Amino acid sequence: MSISEVxxxxxxxxYLRMALEEDITSEDVSANAVMDTPCRGEVDxxxxxxxxxxxxxxxxxxxxxxxxxxxxxxxxxxxDRVENGQRIAVLQGExxxxxxxxxxxxxxxxxxxxxxxxxxxxxELLKDSGITLLxxxxxxxxxxxxxxxxxxxxxxxNHRYNLSxxxxxxxxxxxxxxxxxxxxxxxxxxxxxVRKIEVETETLEMVQEAVExxxxxxxxxxxxxxxxxxxxxxxxxxxxxxCSGNVTEEKIAALREIGVDFISSGALTHxxxxxxLSMKHLHPIER
Length: 287
Fold this sequence. Notes:
With 287 residues, the chain is an alpha/beta fold. The protein has helices at residues 5-23, 29-34, 56-66, 95-125, 144-153, 171-177, 180-190, 204-213, 225-235, 249-252, 267-270, and strands spanning 40-47, 51-52, 71-74, 81-82, 87-94, 132-134, 167-169, 197-201, 217-221, 240-244, 262-264, 277-284.
């Protein structure tokens, strides 16, 4: 399942509510202490680092859940490149809601923008190679929909969303079934015909067995470059190929020449640094 803006809108509220409930168990003592009566205010969203912005609708929705009167004027949209010092948006709402939602909203926006920025750099390294960059299920609990959406904003492609989304036979599945052939046969008999079957392999012998078993996609997991080249030649187009295992920006350029169809990287979601963003210049305004 590819995460789109529509998918985000349909699913994000329950996660945002959980995040807000985590941060506000009964009240925001600090906000209520300095603002004992309702007052409308305005604040700027400022970029403090170059990168790709992602998650603006999520950022805004946090405040909307706290304040029905909240409005935002955005000067950029998801996927745009932004630069240090630029004003991303002007926000207006009840001051206590702006204060209470600030950290939660920024946590989402910074995390998602960091992932989009990291993904865009890796996509650029694969430019004109014909290789598709994929994410993985190595995501933060309860953050998967946001993190996978951010990958698409950065130009990457979503692998399966969860365990219900596709058949991937990893080493322990293969061990449980008694071998690759048995695992593929059982998956073929059980899974609907519309689902592809992917097999994780670590050796050329496993690759050969996966080909003979009729796997649709063969993952070359943690192989060295020479072995991966041999594996791609052995497969000979009889299955799609995916390279995986400790894929980083430093390593990805060298993987262009292997000849695989896909490169998957858990680092997109588990190791992307956040992008520095801040809310500044909060002040009261007339209603």
